[in-house]
């Protein structure tokens, strides 16, 4: 069975009002389309945790800080609808740009703190664009619960902060990163890798997991990270934008994994920017002091 598609807020609200009348818990999975198993895993989790699931598909121009990246972003609505059909998702919301940003639109939602550094430092305006569109999608769908991938870990934090600060009554659920068998995190942008680059790409995850292991064993961030950055360049990536150890719950910089931590990376392979992150489970008791 195909998934019904709506394209306007008024159609969307009518459907959701009917569901609410029946007392349904409504989940939303925001996406930019070009769906892969990562997205489908969010839909599966959403179906398990809500009664009705809306998938949104909108390639949000405001979060692209490069015109070339926006132009190259895959647009595959028919294939996406076909992939969603067997999942049991209840509605696909595909607004056009006018529906989200009508003439005269002048509001930006900007989240300080967690938006700064990491991807925020290299994609100016990106998280303003994400926070603005996600706030709109929450308000348009009126969802009770929303599902985001940990692959975009900083985005997950930005969205959590935004919903809390704006008193939007939506629960934010983070979902584990889905990977290829060789470890590469699934991403729509992987389709832009050449065959040769695709063989190099999984090295990023391998080096990241190796460094996380060393950090969880008590290694100092600076040394472990410098060695891992060199290994990433050695593997064939040409620009490591960041490789940083941050608090898992607050994204604040850490010198050691002496509390729940995340190791996050962004690096370029040819013309493709890949990001990844991994939880660092510390073997150290909190506050444990190691020799420098
Ligand atoms: N490999 C993955 N595992 C789990 N969730 C994912 C994965 N890839 C993307 N997601 C999540 O799917 C949602 C929509 O992401 P998006 O449409 O940007 O896809 P994407 O593959 O991340 O594309 P790109 O990184 O090229 O923009 C986000 O919450 C994102 O974190
Ligand atoms: C959350 C999102 C759909 C907002 O455009 C996008 O940033 C994405 O796909 O991760
Ligand atoms: N997956 C996050 C959306 C973006 O890269 O623009």
Automatic annotation (TrEMBL):
Gene it is expressed from: panC
Pfam families: Pantoate_ligase (PF02569)
Annotated metabolic or biological route of this protein: Cofactor biosynthesis; (R)-pantothenate biosynthesis; (R)-pantothenate from (R)-pantoate and beta-alanine: step 1/1
EC category: ligase
Subunit structure: Homodimer.
Biological role stated in the UniProt entry: Catalyzes the condensation of pantoate with beta-alanine in an ATP-dependent reaction via a pantoyl-adenylate intermediate.
Compartments it resides in: Cytoplasm
Location of the active site: 39 (proton donor)
Keywords of this entry: ATP-binding, Cytoplasm, Ligase, Nucleotide-binding, Pantothenate biosynthesis
Name by which UniProt lists this protein: Pantothenate synthetase
Enzyme Commission number, as recorded: 6.3.2.1
């Amino acid at each position: 069975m195909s998934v019904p598609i709506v394209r306007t807020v008024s159609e969307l609200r009518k459907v959701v009002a009917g569901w609410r009348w029946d007392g349904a818990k409504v989940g939303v999975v925001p996406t930019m389309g070009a769906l892969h198993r990562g997205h489908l895993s969010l839909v599966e989790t959403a179906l398990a945790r809500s009664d009705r699931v809306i998938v949104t598909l909108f390639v949000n121009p405001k979060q692209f800080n490069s015109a070339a990246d926006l132009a190259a972003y895959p647009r595959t609505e028919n294939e996406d609808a076909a992939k969603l059909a067997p999942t049991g998702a209840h509605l696909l919301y595909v607004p056009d740009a006018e529906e989200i940003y009508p003439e005269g639109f002048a509001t930006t939602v900007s989240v300080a703190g967690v938006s700064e550094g990491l991807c925020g430092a290299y994609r100016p305006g990106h998280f303003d664009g994400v926070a603005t569109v996600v706030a709109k999608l929450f308000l348009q769908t009126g969802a009770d619960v929303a599902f985001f991938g940990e692959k975009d870990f900083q985005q997950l934090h930005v969205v959590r902060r935004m919903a809390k600060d704006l008193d939007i009554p939506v629960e934010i659920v983070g979902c584990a990163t889905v990977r290829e068998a060789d470890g590469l995190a699934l991403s729509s942008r992987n389709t832009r890798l050449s065959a040769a680059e695709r063989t190099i790409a999984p090295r990023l995850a391998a080096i990241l997991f190796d460094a996380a292991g060393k950090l969880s064993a008590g290694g100092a961030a600076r040394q472990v990270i410098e060695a891992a950055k060199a290994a990433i360049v050695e593997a064939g990536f040409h620009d490591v934008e960041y490789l940083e150890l941050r608090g898992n719950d607050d994204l604040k910089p850490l010198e050691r994994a002496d509390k729940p931590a995340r190791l996050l990376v962004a690096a370029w392979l040819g013309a493709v920017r890949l990001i990844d992150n991994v939880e660092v489970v510390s073997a150290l008791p909190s506050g444990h002091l190691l020799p420098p």
